[in-house]
Amino acid sequence: MKRFKNILCVVEHGNDSTAVVEQATRLSENNQARLTIMSVLPALASHNGLLEDYAMVNEQEALSLKAQQQTLEKLMESYRQLVKIDVEVSTGRTSIEVIR
């Protein structure tokens, strides 16, 4: 049987993902594969053309990304002893970002 080398687990922002992460970790451990945990945040509403609005939207987006990154890193702490784990957080449409 062919083994997986890389596994991608996409978790939704704001939902309890513990069961999904545990299952992905077990699958990664059984296949000796690298695990990537990914979360895609929805893009914030666009600005109305003003430079101040653009800067504020960018700042809010950066804070949201950082907070989600920290949340996922904390969630994955206990699993890092079992498998190699990468955490990725981005903004946009989930289907597009997962393909990228």
Summarize it.
This protein is α/β, with parallel strands linked by helices. It has three helices and three strands.
Please characterize this protein's 3D structure.
Helix content is 46%, strand content 21%. The two termini are 28 Å apart. The protein has one domain: HUPs (Rossmann fold, 3-Layer(aba) Sandwich). It has helices at residues 18-31, 51-76, 94-99; strands spanning 6-11, 34-41, 85-91. The protein is elongated. Strands 1-2-3 form a three-stranded parallel beta sheet. It is an alpha/beta fold.
Features:
Rossmann fold; 3 strands; 100 residues; alpha/beta; 3-stranded parallel sheet; elongated
What's the overall average pLDDT, rounded?
87
Q: Can you summarize the main beta sheet?
A: 3 strands, parallel
**Briefly, what CATH class?**
Alpha Beta
Distance between the termini: 28 Å
CATH topology, anyone? Rossmann fold
The shape, in one word, is elongated
CATH architecture: 3-Layer(aba) Sandwich
Number of structurally distinct domains:
1
Q: What percent of the residues sit in helical stretches (DSSP H or I)?
A: 40-55%
